[in-house]
Design brief:
405 residues, alpha/beta, 4-stranded mixed sheet, 3-stranded parallel sheet, 14 helices, 13 strands, globular
C-alpha cells in the first residue's frame, strides 16, 4: 500500500476492513468501512482490498499471462496458429496490464460501492464485467448485482453460458429490464411516435418480453422479475397491461423509478429480488461443452432465439473444419448478432418465427477461451452515429464546456 497517497482515516478504514474480512472468513466487508475507504481510492486501496479478501494477486497475474499467451496473432503458411506465448510476449503484455487487472472501485450518487471493470458489447462480445470484479463483489456484500448487456438473448445468454461456466457462479435470480417504449417499438410503432399511448402496439410487442422471460425460467431454470424502467410518457393503462401479461406467466413486475427518484424508486424491485434470491432454482446451461460446435450453435439458435436452426455459410464451413483440426471445438460459443431482434435480421421485431440463423464466420478467441460466431451482417467494430456527439461539444466564451448532455 502506498501510505503517502492515503489519508490516515482511509488507512485506518482499510486496516479495519482487513481485520473484519479475516473475522468473517473473507466473506464480507461492512458498508461503513468500505464507503470510508472509497473517499481515497488508489492502487494501494484496491491492492489492500484484494489482499483482505485473501485474493492471491500473483496467481491472478499468472492467470492473466496464461490467457495472454494463448492469444492467436496469426497463422503460419501451413495453417498453424501463432500465439503470443510462442513470441514470449505475455510478460511484456502483462506489464502493460498490471494495473488494469485491478477492478475500479467507484460509488453511486447515493454512496453505494460499485466496480467498473471491463465493458465489452454484448452484441459482438460477451457483454459482462470481469470475473475478478464479480468475485470481489460477492465477497464484499450480501447481494451482488451485475449487468449483462443488451437483451437476454445476448448478454444474459453469454453471462450464463460463458461467464458463469468459467467462474463457477450459480446465479440466484435474474432481473429483466424492459420499457413500454421498447415494447411498442417491437409492436411496430415508429420511434417518433413512442411517446403516445398505444395499447394495441404494446400488446403486439409484448411477446418479445415474454419470450425473454420464458428463456430465463424454462431454459436456464432461474427465477426472474420484470423491472419496467419508467418513462414520464408511460400511461397507467400501458403499465397495467405489461403487469397483467407477465403475471399470466407467473412473473411479477416491479416499476423502477430510479432515474427520477434515486434509490427510493427501486425499493419495490429490490424487495422482489431479495424474495427471489431465497427461492430454490434449477440453474443449468443452454448447451453442454461436450457437444459439437454445430450442436452448440443449434442449441442457442433454437432454444434462445427460437429459430428453426443454423446455416453455416460463406467462410464458416472451412473455418469450422480448421477449428476442429486445431482442437478448439470444445470451447463455449460467443454469438455476434444484432441486438435489435431475436433473429439475425434487425428489422424482424417482436418474437419472430420461421427463420434460420446464418453463421458467416467462426473465429477463435483463444485467450478469452471461446469461439465467436458472426451472424447476419453484424460488424465487430461499433460505428459512430451519423452525427457523432463530439460535434456538439465545445467551449463557450467563458471557457465552460457545453454540449455534454
Amino acid at each position: 500500500m502506498n501510505a503517502n497517497k492515503l489519508t490516515q482515516k482511509s488507512m485506518e478504514a482499510v486496516q479495519s476492513a482487513e481485520s473484519l474480512a479475516r473475522e468473517r472468513n473473507h466473506q464480507a466487508l461492512c458498508e461503513e468501512h468500505l464507503l470510508t475507504a472509497l473517499v481515497n481510492q488508489n492502487d494501494g486501496l484496491i491492492g489492500s482490498l484484494l489482499s483482505a479478501m485473501n485474493t492471491n494477486i500473483p496467481a491472478l497475474q499468472a492467470k492473466l499471462k496464461d490467457r495472454l499467451s494463448r492469444i492467436i496473432i496469426g497463422y503460419t503458411y501451413d495453417g498453424r496458429p501463432v500465439t503470443c506465448g510462442q513470441l514470449n510476449a505475455q510478460g511484456a503484455m502483462a506489464a502493460l496490464l498490471k494495473d488494469a487487472i485491478k477492478p475500479n472501485l467507484v460509488q453511486t450518487l447515493e454512496g453505494s460501492p460499485a466496480f467498473v471493470h471491463g465493458g465489452p458489447f454484448a452484441n459482438i462480445a460477451h457483454g459482462c464485467n470481469s470475473l475478478t470484479a464479480t468475485r470481489m463483489a460477492l465477497k464484499l456484500g450480501d447481494y451482488a448485482v451485475t449487468e449483462a448487456g443488451f437483451a437476454a438473448d445476448l448478454g444474459a445468454e453469454k453471462f450464463l453460458d460463458i461467464k458463469c461456466r468459467f467462474g463457477g457462479f450459480h446465479p440466484s435470480a435474474v432481473v429483466i429490464v424492459a420499457t413500454v417504449r421498447a415494447l411498442k417499438y417491437h409492436g411496430g410503432v415508429s420511434k417518433n411516435e413512442l411517446n403516445s399511448e398505444n395499447l394495441q402496439a404494446l400488446e403486439k410487442g409484448l411477446p418479445n418480453l415474454l419470450q425473454h422471460v420464458s428463456n430465463i425460467r424454462n431454459v436456464y431454470g432461474l427465477p426472474c422479475v420484470v423491472a419496467v424502467n419508467a418513462f414520464p410518457t408511460d400511461t397507467e393503462a400501458e403499465l397495467s397491461l405489461v403487469e397483467e401479461k407477465c403475471k399470466e406467466l407467473g412473473v411479477n413486475v416491479a416499476l423502477s423509478e430510479v432515474w427520477a427518484k434515486g434509490g427510493e424508486g427501486g425499493i419495490s424491485l429490490a424487495e422482489e429480488v431479495v424474495r427471489l434470491c431465497e427461492e430454490p432454482n434449477d440453474f443449468s446451461y443452454s448447451y453442454r461443452l461436450t457437444m459439437s460446435v454445430e450442436e452448440k450453435l443449434n442449441a442457442i439458435a433454437t432454444r434462445i432465439y427460437h429459430a428453426d436452426g443454423v446455416d453455416l455459410v460463406g467462410n464458416a464451413p472451412s473455418q469450422l473444419k480448421k477449428i476442429k483440426e486445431l482442437g478448439y471445438d470444445s470451447m463455449p460459443i460467443c454469438m455476434a448478432k444484432t441486438q435489435f431482434s431475436f433473429s439475425d435480421d434487425p428489422v424482424k421485431r417482436g418474437a419472430p418465427a420461421g427463420f434460420r440463423i446464418s453463421v458467416k464466420n467462426l473465429k477463435v478467441s483463444a485467450g478469452a477461451g471461446f469461439i465467436v460466431a458472426l451472424t447476419g451482417d453484424i460488424m465487430t467494430t461499433p460505428g459512430l452515429p451519423k452525427v457523432p456527439a463530439a460535434e456538439n461539444i465545445d467551449l463557450d466564451e467563458n471557457g465552460l464546456i457545453k454540449g455534454l448532455f
